[in-house]
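Appendix B. Extra example for self-study. Work through it before the problem class; the solution is given directly after the inputs so you can check yourself.
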Amino acid sequence: MIEFTFWDILRNLLLAARWTILLSIVAFAGGAIAGVAILLLRISKRRWLRQAAEYYIGLFQGTPLLMQLFLLFFGLPLLGFRIEAWTAAVLGLTLCASAYLAEIWRGGVQSLPNGQWDAGSSLGLHYITQLRLIILPQAFAITRAPTVGFLVQLIKSTALTSIIGFEELVRTSNAINNATFEPFTVYGLVALIYFVLCYPLTRYTKILELRTARQH
Amino acid sequence: MEYALDFGWLNGAIGMIASGAAMTIFLIAVTTVAGVILSIFGAAAKRSRYPILRKAIAAYVEVIRNTPFLVQLFFIFFGLPRFGIRLDPVIAAMLAMTLNMTAYTTEIVGAGLDAVPKGQREAAAALGLPAWLVFIKIVLPQALKVIFPALTSQIIIMMLESSVVSQIAVRELTYEADMLQARTFRAFETYFVVTIVYLGMSIGLRRLLFATGRRAIAGGMA
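Solution. Structure tokens for the complete assembly:
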């Protein structure tokens, strides 16, 4: 049996945390891009597009993320795609993030007064230009706090990718635990690492909320 | 080779899926009741006169909200036996879910209590009601009415998150799905069916809570 000191455990966990951070960043970036696309459908003038986006959001918010990951992990190979844990993890979290972010930003868009659209039209701006210059910047600014709040949720969600075999923080900690039989130390440290990642963002959310509250 | 979807196994699997779903519903029911009751105490403690109590509740809420549920579950199930606390998987799942739920609902219930105007309390006190009766009959029903949508969302989020407790071998819906796919070798179809079941449960739960809860809260306690 290999002897693990406390520092060995910590070092291995910190190395694994890099994958948690990378996955969070990639999924958030991908989710933001796809989320804007879903948002555009969700606020479209065509009813069936709005409806389709609503179902998409409802599907991802109404089923467990773990099931979404399983379906991708086992489903995509059936369609002929070779898939690894990393691909399924990124894809699953991106799709899920796009649904949540689209819904958050939709709230921002709908809270804007209609006059903002009218003013854009009266300046002769095209629909896309109105969105780009007037509507979306304001919608993003209003919803900054819930967006950062969702990032915290996303970081925590990456823990589920350990179940489909992606070597991030939790999966590494399971392996270390099996070798050391020190579950209290190992999972305690893992919780601490997640806390260090998430707590600053949570504080930032609070500050943003207070700032918005003061403006109104 | 073309892969053909096959749902033929479903006939013999309905019993397993149903018993898994029943376990999931049982877990979320226990968690909801325990979580809401505890979070009323939590929210009250956070507004108490004792700074230590306030700080302790705040710390608990932050620790739970900034760590993944899966890690909390592993910590309770694998970590606690070191201190001689050996829990049955179902008990560990209920404990982890309740601790997780309470951290979120403490904030929600607290916001609801703050939303009840002070005059309500004063008017009730002026009528000579004792403090606990003021809280139960006047403040709490109004607070619950305000927070009802947020509470419903949190209950549904927790139900979906409970799929994770399959990892400590609690025989709920996801665990049964894992067993089924190992037996049928039809992983995609199995998880597809179970995902639809989850979707139906979350839609159904939302409808049920909105249909019955609102009336019960508004009329039942007052």
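Self-check: Chain A has a mean pLDDT of 93. If your reasoning did not lead you there, revisit section 3.
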